[in-house]
Design brief:
Elements (H helix, E strand, L loop, with lengths): L2 H9 L6 H12 L5 H14 L3 H12 L15 E5 L7 H11 L4 E5 L9 H6 L10 H11 L1 E5 L6 H12 L6 H15 L3 E8 L8 H17 L3 E8 L7 E3 H12 L6 H16 L6 H13 L2 H12 L18 E6 L4 E5 L2 H13 L13 E4 L6 E2 L4 E7 L4 H9 L2 E4 L9 E5 L1
Parallel strand pairs: 1-4, 2-3, 4-5
Antiparallel strand pairs: 5-13, 6-9, 7-11, 8-10, 8-12, 9-11
The structure holds uracil.
Uracil binds next to helix 9.
Length: about 425
């Protein structure tokens, strides 16, 4: 077999066999196929796509490029949740301790912020000392002790995806449904949880801006997971406005702590509670959604989910003082307030730009090597559909070092205030299982 012939075949729109796909992926993983050949292969897939059989073969080969964790020794259900990413989308931080408090094991491996989207690992690292780089043994130890652990992808998990994703990122081949499906699902399958919930975002600040694309991706990922014997559920959710009231690393952890302390409720907590409830039904812990939702609320009001969160910080070497004293996170040197220039109703019209603005304030990164500033970001005092009066503070921009004039310019193109009453956004659009 030759890489050239496989690239040629896909370039001309022909179907590849499982052996040909494995030849490319394994060859690349072991350094036998060069970057330029894998780039050409990925571009051929981008234009010619893959059918279901090819997509599943790619998913399987990438999942098997490393170790597939076997969590059978755990004495309870296992669940994982993955979001395709957005602005203010920190639901994992809340869902994992809630599920752990409901006796579900959550072995969660997450990613970092890139471009306009945030990343769970950067949020966790806003807690001073927090270690997201546990090796497999320590990860399992924490999981056994506290029922959940939150770390970055270990070197054992789908190494071929790690290499291929880095290449896709610089060759404009990310936005391909079969490539995204196999990339996400190879990792989820390798991570070993039996129940997987996918939060597939759609809208202006999502990977899949068009609803039909988000739905197709969700369907493919559900099918792929089922092929590997996993219980699958995908939820298509809105990313036309930021989720919750904060985008930024420590700001989102503080918001999570406020929810865990039962002090606030907002669209971020609502969506997180709903997703947790779907997982409780999926795992068989609760009989139906209503019972599951009540259980989730009980874990918040009793403080059990908060306890789990604190224990995770402790087990992963973070400073637990942050829980009672938010000043331990540190504070941004500057806060710039954007106020309403007239009376009316707010509507977000470009949430992608809001994500970019948060990134430019220091909360995210434009390139994988960039460093994030844990304390910078944006507080959203108003959400779409909220009534605003002239001079009300709409956004607070927290930053240490930024070109604030251009950030404000970007933000000013991302919302409108109009006289007509706006509908509140409904975050959950469809469930696919
Ligand atoms: N996230 C992933 O892990 N892979 C993709 O291809 C896209 C988003």
């Amino acid at each position: 077999m030759r890489a050239y012939d496989i690239i040629y075949k896909k370039r001309n729109g022909r179907k590849l066999s499982k052996e040909e796909i494995s030849f490319m992926v394994d060859g690349y993983n072991y350094g036998k196929i060069a970057d330029y050949q894998m780039s050409a292969f990925l571009m051929a897939v981008y234009f010619q796509s893959l059918d279901d059989e090819e997509t599943f073969a790619l998913t399987e080969t990438m999942a098997k490029s490393g170790e597939i964790l076997d969590l059978i020794f755990l004495d309870g259900p296992t669940a994982d949740k993955h979001s395709t990413g957005g602005v203010g989308d920190g639901t994992s931080l809340l869902i994992a301790p809630i599920l752990a408090a409901c006796d579900v094991y959550v072995p969660m491996m997450s990613g970092r912020a890139l471009g306009h989207t945030g990343g769970t690992l950067d949020k966790l690292e806003a807690v001073p000392g927090f270690n997201v780089n546990l090796d497999k043994e320590k990860f399992i130890e924490v999981l056994k002790k506290n029922k959940f652990a939150m770390i970055g992808q270990t070197k054992e998990v789908a190494p071929a995806d790690k290499k291929m994703y880095a290449l896709r990122d610089v060759t404009a081949t990310v936005e391909s449904i079969p490539l995204i499906c196999s990339s996400i699902m190879s990792k989820k399958i390798a991570e070993g949880a039996k129940n997987i919930l996918l939060d597939v975002k759609t809208g202006n600040a999502a990977f899949m801006q068009k609803y039909e694309d988000a739905k197709l991706l969700a369907q493919k990922m559900v099918q792929a997971g089922k092929m590997f014997g996993r219980n699958m559920c995908a939820v298509i959710t809105d990313m036309d406005e930021p989720l919750g009231n904060a985008a930024g690393n420590s700001l989102e952890v503080i918001q999570t702590l406020e929810v865990l302390k039962n002090k606030i409720e907002n669209d971020f907590s609502d969506l997180s509670f709903d997703l947790s409830a779907y997982i409780l039904v999926q795992t068989g812990i609760s009989e139906n959604f209503e019972a599951a939702r009540n259980k989730v609320k009980e874990k918040i009001s009793s403080g059990q989910a908060l306890e789990k969160f604190i224990k995770m910080i402790e087990l992963q070497n973070g400073n637990t003082k942050v829980v009672d004293d938010y000043s331990v996170f540190g504070k941004a040197q500057n806060i710039y307030k954007i106020t309403a220039h007239e009376n009316g109703y707010l509507k977000y019209v470009n949430t992608r730009n809001i994500g970019i603005a948060a990134c430019l304030l220091g909360a995210g990164r434009l390139k994988t090597e960039d460093k994030v500033d844990p304390v910078s970001g944006i507080i959203f005092n108003k959400k779409s559909g909220d009534k605003v009066c002239k001079n009300d503070v709409l956004f607070e921009l927290h930053y240490n070092k930024a070109d604030i004039k251009s950030v404000v310019e970007i933000l000013n193109t991302s919302y409108i205030i109009s006289g007509g009453k706006q509908e509140k956004i409904k975050f959950i659009k469809e469930i696919i299982d």
